[in-house]
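Worked Example 4.2. Consider the chain below.
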Amino acid sequence: MRLFLDECLSPGIGQALNSEGLHVAIHPRDFGGLGAPDREVLARCLERDLVLVTENARDFRALVAARDVHPGLIVLPCVGRARSEALLRAAIDFLSKRGDPMDSMVNHVLEVTAETGMTLYPMSMQER
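Applying the procedure from the previous section yields the following structure tokens:
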């Protein structure tokens, strides 16, 4: 998958995923993007076709809901680095069972609970 990890998540998660060569995970610290407003974060994801991964559910849900098309949003709970990485890996596995995870995420939000519960649902301006 091609992922953008919001700054609320550890850059170590991206480093771990990237080291395996199966995914591309970008963190704002990697390119001097710390502190960017949420609209700019989403714009970067749209521009580069990256699924946004965040713990900031409320703000980003509203932003993707206002878009006709977006690459997707994965919402993780606030649980710490190791657990966040495990939950993100579980989310990728969950999506992979449905085919190409990037295709599954277009105009969708995947909510992940601390207990590894997964809820995938459509969200875009088209869905309104």
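The longest strand covers residues 108-112. The beta strands are 2-5, 24-26, 51-54, 73-75, 108-112, 118-122. Compare this with Example 4.1 before moving on.
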